[in-house]
Automatic annotation (TrEMBL), chain A:
This is Cytochrome c oxidase subunit IVB. Signal peptide: none annotated. It is a multi-pass membrane protein. The keyword Transmembrane helix applies. Its main location: membrane. It is found in: Cell membrane. It comes from Oceanobacillus aidingensis. The chain crosses the membrane at residues 25-45, 51-73, 85-105. The gene is ctaF. Keywords: Cell membrane, Membrane, Transmembrane, Transmembrane helix. The lineage of its organism: Bacteria, Bacillati, Bacillota, Bacilli, Bacillales. The keyword DNA damage does not apply. It holds the Pfam family COX4_pro.
UniProtKB/TrEMBL annotation, chain B:
GO terms for cellular component: plasma membrane. One of its GO terms (biological process) is aerobic electron transport chain. It comes from the Bacteria. Keywords: Cell membrane, Membrane, Transmembrane, Transmembrane helix. PANTHER family: CYTOCHROME C OXIDASE SUBUNIT 3, CYTOCHROME C OXIDASE SUBUNIT III. The gene is ctaE. Belongs to the cytochrome c oxidase subunit 3 family. The chain crosses the membrane at residues 27-49, 69-89, 101-121, 141-164, 184-204. It is a multi-pass membrane protein. It is found in: Cell membrane. This is Cytochrome c oxidase subunit 3.
Length: 106, 207
């Protein structure tokens, strides 16, 4: 009897936790949509490209951060190894992008 | 298989997708795969950045791209990312029907995205004569964006197969990791798209 009670308690506790996590997900989705709108607005308003390109890249990195850390749970416990793998991947991405652009621009 | 792994609703594991050793391995294996995917797309982005101005007299980035369609595609894919989060939320609460419903919505949004992309490519080919062979820019553009579209096609066939195959089985510890790995893969497709709409389309419109 007490056993059944305790498992049921854990389940409702877990359900509440899942719900709270889902609310965070919806908030991060709203922020991502907002960043997308800002990025498109900057391009439509024809802000000079010297300012707009770094801002666009920054907005993209923030959005991708939300995607990785919230939607893909990289911030959670037990995701240390996947996080390392992705940091490595991002490092290679930046290196490759810089190498290819520097080779062609200079 | 499903018999040994069926979920006891009274003793629900905290995360059914990682309750078994097989599930944990699937999870880690997918992340290693995503690390490799990052490098693949890094190379394609690098190639595109190097060749985007080599239009060979053909249409340039500014003449070609339109913001409206790209915005629609972005919203479709971003929303499909959220709907797959909803599906995993219902998986954690052991609600198979709602999980199937949200996975179905995810697949529909993915299909809509794909339709927009096919329309976009057809528009470029017929109205601008801009093909894979037009210029170095054309090759780099279709390789990068096409590779992403190919990932969407693969993801769609993955989720539709999973949904059909497990429709009568219900949720258990054997198939929960499969749905979870799909959701992770689908988020990654969205990550790549964020960089495509920023680096290819938005930066192509300003420079």
């Amino acid at each position: 009897m007490t056993d059944e009670m305790s498992t049921r308690k854990i389940n409702s506790f877990q359900k509440q936790k899942n719900k709270e996590e889902m609310q965070k997900m919806v908030v991060s989705f709203a922020l991502m949509i907002f960043f997308t709108l800002v990025a498109f607005a900057l391009v439509m308003l024809e802000v000079p490209s010297t300012y707009v390109i770094p801002i666009l890249l920054l907005l993209a990195f923030v959005q991708v951060g939300f995607q990785f850390f919230y939607f893909m749970h990289l911030k959670d416990k037990g995701h240390e190894v996947p996080a390392q793998i992705i940091y490595g991947g991002i490092f290679i991405t930046v290196m490759v992008a810089l190498t290819f652009t520097i080779i062609t621009w200079w | 298989m499903s018999h040994d792994h069926s979920i006891d609703p009274k003793n629900m594991p905290k995360d059914p997708s990682k309750a078994t050793t097989e599930g944990k391995h699937k999870f880690m294996g997918l992340w290693i795969f995503l690390g490799g995917e990052t490098v693949l797309f890094a190379c394609l982005f690098g190639t595109y950045l190097a060749l985007k101005d080599s239009a060979a007299g053909g249409p340039t980035t500014q003449e070609l791209y339109g913001l409206g369609l790209v915005f629609l595609m972005t919203v479709l894919l971003l929303t499909s990312s959220l709907t797959s989060v909803y599906a995993i939320y219902h998986m954690k609460n052991n609600d198979f029907k709602k999980m199937q419903l949200w996975m179905g919505i995810t697949a529909l949004l993915g299909l809509a995205f794909l339709a927009c992309e096919i329309y976009e490519f057809a528009h470029y080919i017929h109205d601008y004569g801009f093909t894979f062979r037009s210029s170095a820019f054309g090759s780099a553009f279709y390789t990068l964006v096409g590779f992403h579209g190919g990932h969407v096609v693969f993801g769609l066939s993955w989720i539709i197969t999973l949904m059909v195959r497990n429709a009568k089985r219900g949720l258990d510890l054997y198939n929960a990791p499969k749905f979870n790995t799909f959701a992770l893969y689908w988020h990654f497709i969205d990550v790549v798209w964020v960089f495509i709409f920023t680096v290819v389309y938005l930066m192509g419109m300003v420079s």
